[in-house]
Amino acid sequence: MTDDTRTVLSRRTLVAGGAAASVTSGLLAAQGRTSNAARFSMNYAPHQGSFASRGGLIEQIAFAADQGFTAWEDNEARNRPVAEQERMARALSQRGMMMGVFVASMPRWSQSRPLLGGSDDAEREAFLADIRTSVDVAKRLSAKWMTVVPGFMDAKAPVDIQTARIIDVMRRAGEIVAPHGIAMVMEPLNTRTNHPGVYMQTIAQGYAVARGANSPAVKILADLYHEQIQSGNLIPTLDTCWSEIRYLQFGDNPGRKEPTTGEINYRSVVRWLKAKGYAGVIGMEHGNSVAGRAGEERLVAAYREIDRA
Question: Considering only 4-8, 143-147, 225-229, which range has the smallest mean pLDDT?
Answer without folding.
Answer: 4-8
